[in-house]
Write a structure and sequence with these properties.
With 379 residues, the protein is of the alpha/beta class. It has 2 domains: 119 residues, Sandwich (Immunoglobulin-like), CATH 2.60.40; 216 residues, 3-Layer(aba) Sandwich (Rossmann fold), CATH 3.40.50. It is built from 10 helices and 16 strands. Strands 1, 2, 3, 4, 5, 6, 7 and 8 form an 8-stranded mixed sheet that branches. A 6-stranded parallel sheet has the order 13-12-9-14-15-16, sandwiched between helices. Strands 10-11 form a two-stranded antiparallel sheet. Helix 4 runs antiparallel to helix 10, helix 7 runs parallel beside helix 8 and helix 9 runs antiparallel to helix 10. It starts with a helix and ends in a 6-residue tail after the last helix.
Length: 379
């Protein structure tokens, strides 16, 4: 009870501060230009879900790659200290379906569009968004395009993947390394793990083409990093997919970013519940609690987890809870790999028929090339 009261007071205080700051900016003519951000959505049994946000443009998302440490730190601070735009009105349309949605106090909007069967729209259905009105701002209509992941009836399985230290090197287990990576405000500054492109593209391939099997990305990183992650995937030719990130801030129901386990497990359940016809391959790392979370997902959805691949970032010294999570998965009959590279994951994918056999050699080749580049090969 006391916790709830403190939370309510903190939320009210933040709301009052935001409103006071907004009034001050408005009175001094310092309101910025709103921009419309569209995130990738996905198909659910209840309709097409997508999310977006309206914030003031601080030049962060459009900033070019730079090697300046000070400049990047400043941009990163602004990336997290957003000036959200509440009560903005956004019109949406897809085909003959139209509607309107309004942003909340953090500038976010969520919408679910009812739809008929859309398998012919796979893999992506475009949704047009137009920022039509923003109270107290002088704006002309601003458009953006969102995309909804439509799963082909020919899909055999889906993939749910972590992001930090699973596909992109962030050093999340080391604070200084992690901050240095996060502070670099560009996708070009981030490093992909060798073989991730080949393995994920191999898993996504199927009878309906290179995006037959959908990939979903679930992370405890905040929505503030969405554009960086998406550009990173484009640069490294990693299959795109809906990202389910975490709110960064205080609202009526949460403190700051909320719980890591609860967020990831809730999002995994949301994806699996939205696609009850699909089993899933889960990919994560040993730096946090992915093995434990994935074991719980397998318990809640028996026979729907085909394999779990954990990229070991702890040099073989798994935490006890991670060991217990791996053991639990194995007792449930789930195939599990734990390794510092994705080679064992590729072996399983090739041998189990989840990916074509040549994917294994592609992954091995990428790993070997990285080793040569880093000078770890004799001779």
């Amino acid at each position: 009870m006391a916790h709830d009261k403190i939370h309510a007071l903190a939320h009210r205080a933040e709301n009052l501060w935001d409103r006071a700051r907004f009034r001050a900016k408005r009175a001094t003519g310092l309101l910025g230009t709103p921009i419309l951000l569209a995130y990738r959505g996905f198909q659910t049994p209840h309709g097409l879900w997508l999310r977006g946000r309206v914030i003031e443009d601080q030049g962060v998302i459009s900033a070019e790659h730079s090697e300046s440490i000070v400049g990047n730190m400043w941009l990163s601070l602004k990336r997290y200290e957003t000036d959200e735009v509440r009560d903005a009105r956004i019109a949406y349309s897809t085909g003959s379906i139209t509607g309107e949605v309004t942003t909340d106090e953090e500038g976010y909007f969520d919408l679910t569009i009812e739809h008929p069967a859309l398998s012919e729209a796979a893999p992506w259905l475009p949704v047009e968004l137009i920022l039509t009105e923003v109270p107290h701002y002088n704006v002309r209509p601003l458009g953006a395009k969102a995309e909804i992941r439509i799963v082909s009836p020919k899909a055999r399985f889906g993939v749910i993947s972590d992001i930090d230290d699973t596909i992109v090197k962030t050093g999340a287990t080391n604070f200084l390394k992690h901050w240095r990576t996060v502070a670099a405000n560009s996708a070009e500054s981030r490093t992909a793990f060798p073989g991730v492109t080949h393995l994920y593209r191999g898993l996504a391939e199927g009878e309906a083409g290179p995006q037959t099997n959908p990939i979903f990305y679930v992370s405890s990183s905040p929505w503030n990093l969405f554009d960086l992650f998406e550009r990173f995937m484009v640069l490294h030719d990693i299959p795109l997919g809906p990202m389910l990130l975490k709110d960064f801030g205080l609202d009526a129901t949460k403190w700051l970013t909320g719980g890591h386990d609860d967020h990831k497990l809730t999002m995994i359940e949301r994806v699996m519940a939205a696609h009850p016809q699909l089993p899933f391959v889960l990919v994560g790392d040993s730096g946090q609690r992915d093995a434990v979370i994935y074991a719980e997902a397998a318990r809640r959805y028996p026979d729907r987890v085909l394999a779990v691949h954990i990229r070991d970032v702890t040099a073989g010294h798994l935490a006890q809870e991670a060991d217990e999570g791996v053991a639990s998965l194995k007792r449930a009959g789930v195939a599990v790999t734990v390794a510092p590279t994705l080679e064992e994951a590729a072996v399983h994918a090739a041998e189990s028929g989840l990916a074509r056999p040549s994917v294994l050699e592609e992954v091995r080749g990428a790993i070997e090339q990285r080793r040569r580049e880093e000078g770890r090969v004799d001779g």
